[in-house]
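Board notes, transcribed. Complex of a protein with magnesium ion.
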Amino acid sequence: MATIIDGKVISAQLLEQVAADVIEFKAKHGITPGLAVVLVGDDPASQVYVRNKVQRAEQVGIRSIKHRLDANVSQETLNDLVAELNADPEIHGILVQLPLPKHLDEDEIVDAIAPSKDVDGFHSLNVAALATGKPGLVPCTPQGSMTMLRQTLDDLTGLHAVVIGRSNIVGKPMAALLLQANCTVTMVHSRTRDIASVCRQADILVAAVGSQKLVNADWVKPGATVIDVGINVEMLDGVRKLCGDVDFESVSKVAGAITPVPGGVGPMTIANLLANTLQAAQAQMSA
Ligand SMILES: Nc1nc2c(c(=O)[nH]1)N[C@@H](CN(C=O)c1ccc(C(=O)N[C@@H](CCC(=O)O)C(=O)O)cc1)CN2
Ligand SMILES: [Mg+2]
């Protein structure tokens, strides 16, 4: 049976560290780090994530301000709000909760956020910084996944990491971080031929594709470390349950270590968002 990599425990450690660093920041600069969270529309999952972000921010001493906009808000109004937040010296971090309603252009709004306040690490300049190994704000979910890998494995150097999924917010930044950690990185996706045999070669397997229980035991090398980034909803006997991209029941019998869903990568995302907010505030104070 695989070791369970507990995201609740690891994220609680990170939050504790952020809270201590926030106290130090406040003492040094006499100001409180500020995070603006923008929620457009009524997507129930997004509402839960935003509520959790605001609650956790308070817990670590970061001031958060939530901006709730109607589902049919115009691109112009959203751009104007972001411009206002960019100019606000009390706001050090800005995030726009995704996904946005279809009529809005996500790329445009993400690139409207000042790169120094882009605590999601989605802005083109932060993406370029990560790709070229320069300092910048790194996306929260891949960053959290790396923390879990580092706590599980002594050294990542030379390990073969396979990332399933090529999204801009998880797959691509995850691959860049694994490469920085000296892994040999392969990305697989819906057009990959014989995806199972490629995955079976992985020492580290990261599933970030949004396809319920896609990865089964046949895809996993015995002893591999498996990071499940998927958050999918399944109905079991009429009850709504979360599950990942990995079939936990079968894979946990083969893998060396595995993250569960829920309680794995998810909690790391929010902890890293707050770590990024503090990092952004520190950088702005020394600019
Ligand atoms: N602007 C952003 N939008 C989105 C991001 C993001 O990082 N920035 N990521 C996801 C949603 N997300 C954060 O926003 C997120 C998803 C899941 C969790 C989490 O803690 N999940 C729990 C289960 C929670 C539940 O019961 O529903 C877990 O896995 O244990 C946190 C954050 C898309 N949008
Ligand atoms: Mg759109």
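Residues 140-265 form a domain with the Rossmann fold fold (CATH 3.40.50.720). The longest strand covers residues 34-40.
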